[in-house]
Write a structure and sequence with these properties.
Length: about 280
Amino acid sequence: MNLDELQSVQSRERQIDSLQQLHDTFYQDAGQFVRQLREEREAVAERVSDPFDSPDVQRLTDEINTAERTVESIYERRIGKLVKQASLDAAGMAADVDGLTTEERETFDRLVATIEDSRSRVLDTVLTQEADAETTPPHDDEAAEPADATATTSELRADSAMGAGEDATTDREAPPPPPDEPLVSESEPEPEPDPDPVQEVEESAASPPPAETPTPADDTDDIERMTVRITSDIGEILGVDDRAYELSTDDVVRLPTMNADPLLEQDAAILLDQS
């Protein structure tokens, strides 16, 4: 193996989506090639007086670094494709794994086994939980509820029947009232006396009328104001005079100067006068 062969494998692996066929001992051969380059560099370094200034030593160092990076690139590119093929195989689909190296075949088998085990554990757990939820019998309290309801209904009917019998017995035993006495219902309320109109007039005259809430007058404070025309919908703002102002387009309003100045600066209002 040489550096040109490694770079050719790298270029081919980048051009196709599938795994190109490699020898079983590809990575072993690549490792042997890098070791030979190192041994050669050590031999050259021993023959020269200054290894750090030797062109041959520098050339071999560059070849070693290039070979190592190329082998690493090939492996990273192929392992990504290998994971995809292992996922297909674990799902029972056809996987294209011809031409794998010895190391890649071992990795592929472990990946398939791991994915199948994970799939079995995850899906079996989910499906078992769903099956248990469908076959779980109702709680004992829920099952006993209809019987309890029936017993309660029967007891209510029995109590009602007993009460009706007692009322009937009482009605039969009670003597009728004397014919000369009028029948008066004990629950009927007695009529209340009509209110005294004179007393109501006196109470009304004695009660003072409710006090009216004073409304603040505009411009009665010491706050400087200016009249502006609103040029955009601003909404509600709170003035420095503690009053709320609802500002919409084309509104003409007299605002405190400290509130009007920012609107003028932002072209949200036009000054009409300064009086």
